[in-house]
Amino acid sequence: MLATPVTKSRAMSFVALTKPRIIELLLIATIPTMFVAHGGLPSIPLMLFTFIGGALAAGGANAFNMYIDRDIDVKMNRTKGRPLVTGAVSPAEALVFALVIEILAFVWLWYFTNLLAAVLALSACLFYVFIYTMWLKRTSSQNIVIGGAAGAVPVLVGWAAVVNELSLAPWLLFAIIFFWTPPHFWALAIKYQEDYASVNVPMMPVVASFRTTAIQMTGYAAITWGLSLGFGLVAQMGYLYLASSMVLGFLFTYKAWKLTVCEDASQRVSNSIKYFQFSITYLSLLFGVMAVDQLVGWGP
Fold it and tell me: Which residue blocks in the chain are alpha helix, DSSP H?
């Protein structure tokens, strides 16, 4: 029997609970990490199993986030179209859905990869839900700085899925995403500063001036740049990655610095959104080059 429009709409509402665009960004980093861990092309089934398990784990965490934040989502323009705000999904349905796919993710990763990968994925969910969403998000301007650790765990999952252990190299990848997250997210938060202020969520652009926020973004971008170079040396990456990380890191830092000297108030939001978009390009290219580097083998 073919699905009716109503059934399709309901299904899409549950998919929306998982925040697919965020999942996509997390997995952009996970799969190339597996190339580096393997030193070349990993098993295709293993990549597929890790991709599915990682998507389920991140989706469950995001659904929990929407369930917890439904009281403020209804007041914010940015989130007023979410399923729990529109009534497309009830709170009870969202909670059960989140719990089920998170359990499924753990079992899936344990069965098809290994216990370490499954535990790491679960830890990311617990950190995101309890430390970021339930505690830091509404109480600290450092919410996304500390809470961003949850978004950096997928690279550890990818590495563990391949070799079933963690060394310095994957922790450096974790650090890259950890320090990349504040400038990435604050660039978007600048646009929605009034939204966050209206619900008393102390994102950095709410509690600090634009210039102060931009200066901190530049600092985090510079650290990310340094870590990307350090990873290249520790992981003994090839010339392609080393050259690319140098150029990409410079651009990521320079564009953040350009925000600090933006005097035109009318241009600040548009420039911030451009930086937000570039931050996604930066991460995608950096990790994409990692994978290609492992395939071509242009090393020292």
Answer: 5-17, 20-38, 44-68, 70-73, 83-86, 91-112, 115-126, 143-147, 149-163, 168-191, 193-198, 204-207, 210-234, 239-260, 265-296
| CATH 1.10.357.140 applies to domain 11-165 | yes
pTM above threshold 0.90? yes
Domain boundaries 167-300, CATH class = mainly alpha
DSSP label at 80? T
- Going from the C-alpha of 121 to that of each of 133, 261, 298, the distances in angstroms are 17, 40, 32
pLDDT (tens digit, 9 = 90+) per residue, 85-143? 999 999 999 999 999 999 999 999 999 999 999 999 999 999 999 999 999 999 999 99
pLDDT in tens, 152-210: 999 999 999 999 999 999 999 999 999 999 999 999 999 999 999 999 999 999 999 99
Cα dist from 1 to 4, 8, 75, 106, 112, whole Å: 9, 13, 39, 32, 32
Neighbours of 225 (CB within 10 A): 23
